[in-house]
Amino acid sequence: MEGAKYVLVTGSAGFTGHHLVQALQLLGHHVLGLDTINGYYDPELKYARLALQDFGRSSIGPHTLARGVHAPALSFNQLDSTDKASCYAT
Fold first, then answer.
1. Which of 76, 37, 36 is nearest to 56 (CA)?
2. Alpha carbon of 63 to those of 9, 13, 19, 34, 89: distances in Å?
3. Helix axes 43-52, 15-26, angle to 10 degrees
4. Per-residue pLDDT of the chain in tens (90 residues, 90 and over written 9)
5. Which end of the chain has fewer surrounding CB within 10 Å, N or C?
6. Which residues sit opposite 65 in a β-bridge?
7. Taking the model in full, what pTM does it have?
8. Closest Cα to residue 5, out of 14, 15, 16, 23?
C-alpha cells in the first residue's frame, strides 16, 4: 500500500493496543506489537487477543519475533520485563 507506515504499538495484547493494532492493519500499515504478557491482567485473555491478531500461541515467547500467520506486515515480540538488560539492549 502506498503511504504505509511502520508503527510500534506497546501493550498490543491489551484492550486498547489490540484494537489499535487491528485498525492499523485495516489501514495497511506494518505493525510491530510489544507486550509483557504478565499476570497483571489475565494472560489467557491477552493470548486470545493475539490469536485474533493472527499469532499462534506456539510462536509467542520472550526474545522471539513472531510474524503474523496470514498477515506478513504484522509482527509481535513478548518482552521479559524482569530481564532489564534486554529491555535496554541496542
1. 76
2. 17, 16, 24, 11, 12
3. 10
4. 678 899 999 999 999 999 999 999 999 999 999 999 988 889 999 999 999 888 888 888 887 888 887 777 788 888 877 766 655 554
5. C
6. 77
7. 0.79
8. 23
